[in-house]
């Protein structure tokens, strides 16, 4: 995945740096955000790993405090205050998972159940955070958003 992102960044003419927390503790997340802030990137992309998800409110607070425009993979981050999200619908995904579990409990072989690949993603923008950064988002970008959270 890292190489795919690096290739996309190169095509777009932007720099991309990977910084990963060693563990999902708030002190480690803050250390990583301090390191990122020193580099002054145009934006930060946060992965959807469980430890990070559990600290989404803290991540949103750090992103705003350090003035780092951040995009995340889940709606909950944007609702917590992150600038943008490009997210799959977790409710839909978990509903499909529950259906699959039900099929297995009724006797279906797990190998016979097709793998579900999400096809619908939501583009979310937190307008309050954009204003806190002093950003004026183009109307065309706002129009493309599935939801603008204020």
Biggest sheet: strands, sense, closure?
5 strands, mixed
SS field, number of helical segments: 8
| Strand tally | 5
Structural class: alpha/beta
Query: Which overall shape is indicated by the principal axes computed on the Cα atoms?
Result: globular
Question: How confident overall, as mean pLDDT?
Answer: 90
What topology, given as strand order, has the largest sheet?
1-2-3-4-5
Elements, N to C (H/E): HHEHHEHEHEHHE
Q: Note the gap between the termini.
A: 32 Å
Please compute the radius of gyration using only Cα atoms: 18 Å
Beta-strand residue fraction: 5-15%
Task: State the helicity in percent bands.
Answer: 40-55%
Give an account of the 3D structure:
The protein contains eight helices and five strands. The protein has a five-stranded mixed β-sheet. With 150 residues, the protein is an alpha/beta fold. The protein is globular. 49% of the residues lie in helices and 13% in strands. Helix 5 links the parallel strand 2 and strand 3. Helix 2 (26-39) runs parallel beside helix 4 (56-65).
Short summary:
By secondary structure, the protein is an alpha/beta fold. The protein has helices spanning 2-12, 26-39, 50-54, 56-65, 75-80, 90-105, 127-132, 139-144, and strands at residues 44-45, 70-72, 84-88, 121-126, 147-149. α5 links the parallel β2 and β3.
Characteristic terms for this protein:
150 residues, alpha/beta, five-stranded mixed beta sheet, globular
């Amino acid at each position: 995945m890292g190489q795919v992102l690096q290739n996309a960044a190169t095509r777009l003419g932007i720099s991309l740096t990977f910084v990963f927390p060693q563990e999902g503790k708030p002190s480690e997340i803050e250390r990583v955000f301090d390191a990122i802030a020193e580099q002054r990137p145009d934006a930060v992309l946060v992965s959807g790993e469980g430890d990070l998800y559990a600290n989404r409110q803290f991540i949103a607070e750090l992103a705003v405090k350090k003035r780092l425009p951040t995009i995340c993979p889940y709606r909950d981050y944007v609702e917590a205050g992150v600038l943008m999200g490009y997210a799959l619908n977790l409710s839909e995904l978990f509903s499909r998972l529950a259906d699959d579990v039900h099929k297995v409990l009724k006797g279906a072989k797990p190998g016979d159940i097709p793998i579900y690949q999400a096809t619908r993603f939501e583009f979310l923008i937190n307008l309050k955070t954009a204003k806190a950064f002093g950003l004026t988002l183009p109307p065309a970008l706002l129009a493309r958003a599935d939801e603008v959270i204020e």
